[in-house]
UniProtKB/TrEMBL annotation:
Name recorded for this polypeptide: NB-ARC domain-containing protein
Annotated Gene3D superfamilies: P-loop containing nucleotide triphosphate hydrolases (3.40.50.300)
Keyword presence, Nucleotide-binding: no
Signal sequence region: none
Pfam families: NB-ARC
Amino acid sequence: MPTLRTLLESLTSRTSDVNDLNELQVRVKEKLSKNRFLIVLDDVWNENYNHCMTLLSPFEVGSVESKIIVTTSNQRIALMSWVTNDSNSSLW
C-alpha cells in the first residue's frame, strides 16, 4: 500500500491520506487511464503472487504503449506468471 500511495502522490503532486487499498487503486487508475506511461518497479523481492497482482492491477488501464519494467535479483519472482513471454531469461 505505501507504494501505491507514493505513486498517487507523484501523480497528483499532493499528499494523500487515503488508507484504503481499493480507494488507492481506483485513484491511481483514474490518473493513469488512457495515458501512456512507463513504470519501473525496482528490486522487487516479495514473492507473494497476490501482493504482486494487487500492486500491478492499477496499471491495466493505460494505453497499449504503456510498459512496466520489474527488476529483481530473485529468479522465482522473474518466473512468476505475471511476467510476459517477451521477457528475456538470458538476462540472468
